[in-house]
Design brief:
Blueprint: H1 2-18, E1 21-23, H2 30-34, E2 46-49, E3 58-61, E4 67-70, H3 77-87, E5 91-93, H4 100-105, E6 108-121, E7 132-143, E8 148-159, H5 162-165, H6 171-187, H7 191-194
Parallel strand pairs: 1-4, 2-5, 2-6
Antiparallel strand pairs: 3-4, 6-7, 7-8
Helix pairs in contact: 3-6
């Protein structure tokens, strides 16, 4: 009986130590990204984007010993597409990067792809939502021959304190997404991309 109680106590300690995992969403408000007061010279050619790891679930630290989970690619695809739409004539989702017929039929000059790395933490020992969320976005564009003609690494963060996130547990993450994709909106105005159609 004593052994059973002891084992139960150890199990309870491990559960408390490891904490719980809470689902959040890092989906940004696209209007806050694309309505930025920034002059964009739209390029007169079509592009595509290729998504990998759409179902990837990421778990990172929250507060109070708990963790948070989210689907970074699934939850940011619409923001990525919205940013591309602001810059290019037409934007297509490319299901298969080796589908030369689809790429040719839609006159796609470039295919974009991005990788997301995230980091989160909380300065609170009593609440689980993160107070800081950091996103690094590695984005590149390849031409129809698979040659990389543009790439950029962008990092930004979102912060939220208790009085704010008590109404939205995902607030710090959403702010980070908005900030980093707004940076991408600005970055796509670079010379290498303007000259693709020449």
């Amino acid at each position: 009986m004593f052994t059973l109680i002891k084992l139960s106590s150890i199990l309870l300690f491990v559960i408390l130590l490891t904490g719980c995992t809470h689902k959040i969403e890092i989906t940004p408000n696209n209007d806050k990204i694309t309505n930025a007061n920034y002059e964009i010279e739209k390029k007169d050619y079509n592009v595509g984007y290729y998504m990998e790891n759409m179902n990837l679930l990421v778990v990172s630290p929250g507060g109070g010993g708990d963790k948070i989970s989210y689907l970074p690619y699934d939850e940011t695809e619409s923001a990525f597409r919205s940013v591309l739409v602001k810059h290019f004539k037409k934007v297509y989702a490319v299901d298969n990067i080796n589908s030369k017929e689809f790429i040719s039929n839609n006159d796609i000059r470039l295919i974009f792809n991005y990788k997301i790395n995230t980091y989160s933490f909380s300065d609170s020992s009593f609440t689980w939502p993160p107070t800081k969320f950091i996103i690094t976005l590695d984005c590149k564009a390849v031409n129809k021959d698979g040659i990389t003609i543009w790439k950029k690494t962008l990092t930004d963060e979102g912060n939220a304190h208790f009085d704010e996130f008590k109404y939205d547990f995902s607030l710090a993450a959403k702010r980070a997404s908005e900030n980093v994709f707004r940076k991408l909106l600005f970055a796509l105005n670079e010379k290498e991309l303007k000259e693709v159609n020449k």
